[in-house]
Write a structure and sequence with these properties.
The structure is a single chain. By secondary structure, this protein is α+β, with helices and mostly antiparallel strands. It has a domain of 85 residues. A hairpin with a 7-residue loop joins strand 12 and strand 13. Helix 4 packs antiparallel against helix 5 and helix 7 runs antiparallel to helix 8. It is globular, with a radius of gyration of 22 Å.
Amino acid sequence: MGLTSKLEKLKLKTTSEGEQEAPRLTASPQDGDTDDIDEVDNEGQSILYGIIAQLRPGCDLTKITLPTFILEKKSMLERITNFFQIPNLLLEANQESDDLQRFILILKWYLASWHITPKAVKKPLNPVLGEIFTCYWDNLPSQNTAYYVAEQTSHHPPKSSYFYLVPELKIKVNGVVIPKSKFLGNSSAAIMEGWGHVTLGDHEDEVYIMNQPNVYCRGILFGKLKTELGDHMYVKCSKTGLEADIDFKTKGFISGTYDAIEGVIKDSRTSKDLFSISGKWNEVMEIKDLATGTKKVLFDTKDAVLKIPKVRPLEEQDAYESRKLWKATIEGLRKRDHAIATEEKYKVENEQRILAKKRIEDGVEFHPKLFRPINENEKDLEDLEYVIYKSFELLEDAETLRSQLLDAIPILPGQKSNEKFHIPAFKK
């Protein structure tokens, strides 16, 4: 009965004159951003009927054709930049001399990024194999510039490898995002495998290793659509022995609340709990000193000041750069023309099927351009699987670090692409 009720609600209503009403909106867009709109229209209805026919409990959602009205107007490679859109918190951590306070600030920076999501239930576009996204921030609070590059290094399973660098401040981040989707009945789950490594060169190459909470979409077949973060997120620093375990709590059927977190910061060398963390990841998070009982606000998301990344003009981008590759699809999503968005998305994905078939016929393997596989001697990096092919030693001066990155891939406006940028990483 629940499924029938859900499908009935999806049907377009008809006025007395027999004209179709406009698509139903359950959220108002800000500044015309359709990523903040929950919508169901005629195109979405037909696609959703199709997706329901494909669903089986436990099935892999990467093999399911998703309706375009739930797609965000950006690729996962760009979505990852959410982690770097509150740079003042990362810079504040880098300036802190006390080990414990620096760890708390790193945790604060990481927790602060999770609220940067569309208000509606949206998921980013799945990057295609070899897709690349680059961007930069030239408006950091320190007046320095940060750079970001990402590449889709695997398609089955999907793996998005990324690299972030602030040359003057000797900050670098290596990471990989590996979402594995499952259908769970009335919910879908994105099991977020993969790790990020934040390295602070000014603190003797101190490394913070962190994973991600999982993402759940509720109300697929009946009830209201709702996104939740769930399960445990860890942040660890082997140099100081400090680690955090943050439990993102999902709401129970009867009790509980949405978006709550609970966690602890402890010294792994003594197994002593030092601080507790509580609150809501998308509102206010608090921290309590367990030795003194003092509690204070760790971060209030309404105080966040976001720095949106900048990209090169489309006319300067190569065909496999995210915004150029998905331009027609994104334009369809922007106009909420889901027939066009679906058609353009199919063109991109079908080309990938043709290329994959040709690789099999030719007996060749795909090799990423910017990232290389971890070798057997790099035990401390093995959870990343791939790293950017150039070595970035943070002892080098800022100009050397910047040149190394800009010689690998065009990032800034006016940079000219040349043949060396098209050589796969394994040959470089």
